[in-house]
Amino acid sequence: MESELTQFFSVNKTQIQFSIPLEFQLETIYIRAIPKDILQCNFLKEINLFHGFGFTEEDIDNGSITFYFCFEEVIYLAQCYGPEHFLLNGIFWPKPIQPTFDDIYNGLKYTNASRISIIYPVYSFFRNEKYIVRSGLKYGVDFILYEKSPTVVHASYSVKIGNFLPNDIYQGLSKSQLGKPIKWRDVIGLLRLTEAISKDLLLVTPDLNDKFKIHCTCIQRCKI
């Protein structure tokens, strides 16, 4: 299914042509955008306001806005719009790279951030299903999903990524890449939290043999 963002870019690609690539700089766990002209600034404002990418910090004294993104958002933008329009700088790469999944993963694979290989397929799947996908860290989950802009609606789902399938499904890969199977008492704890914030809980296990496929179970709000 073609995502809303892909449709947006396919329509506006002739209008959005950067004279130089839009640069991103890795800072701790977030990535800061470094726009060089008004076209890049407008692009960042539009994807943030209308498509729910990233978050902003506003400096009232200087009248400036800084845009921050996570790895999966930058990869997805490069996938939709073309990696040649973006550059990523950071300590994990000896020189600026185009932010493709492979290049980012190769730089992160020996760090704690290597979980991007599990996170990104799930992020991409729900983006392609036209959800706005935001971090669920403060709710104890990986993502929360909005059916429309977060400025006008509350999130509909919370997403927890983990090993929710028997170990033999992946012939031993699940332990090394997804961790130990999550216990159902932990799921019940997540369900109680999800109920408290009026969302349905999605338990998601990526298919490690097919990066475009996930196994998903929805637990709707109910009384326990």
UniProtKB/TrEMBL annotation:
Name this polypeptide is given = tRNA-intron lyase
Q: Which GO terms describe its biological process?
A: tRNA splicing, via endonucleolytic cleavage and ligation
The residue ranges of the tRNA intron endonuclease catalytic domain are: 119-211
GO cellular component, alphabetical, reads: cytoplasm; nucleus
InterPro entries given in the database record: tRNA_endonuc-like_dom_sf, tRNA_intron_Endo_cat-like_sf, tRNA_intron_Endonuc_cat-like, tRNA_splic
Family, according to the entry, reads as follows: Belongs to the tRNA-intron endonuclease family.
> What lineage, starting at the top, does this entry show?
Eukaryota, Sar, Alveolata, Apicomplexa, Conoidasida
The organism's place on the tree of life at top rank: Eukaryota
Pfam families from the xrefs? tRNA_int_endo
Q: What is its EC number?
A: 4.6.1.16
Write down the chemical reaction(s) this protein catalyses: pretRNA = a 3'-half-tRNA molecule with a 5'-OH end + a 5'-half-tRNA molecule with a 2',3'-cyclic phosphate end + an intron with a 2',3'-cyclic phosphate and a 5'-hydroxyl terminus
The protein's organism comes out as Cryptosporidium andersoni
Q: What Gene Ontology molecular function terms does this protein carry?
A: nucleic acid binding; tRNA-intron lyase activity
* Major enzyme class: lyase
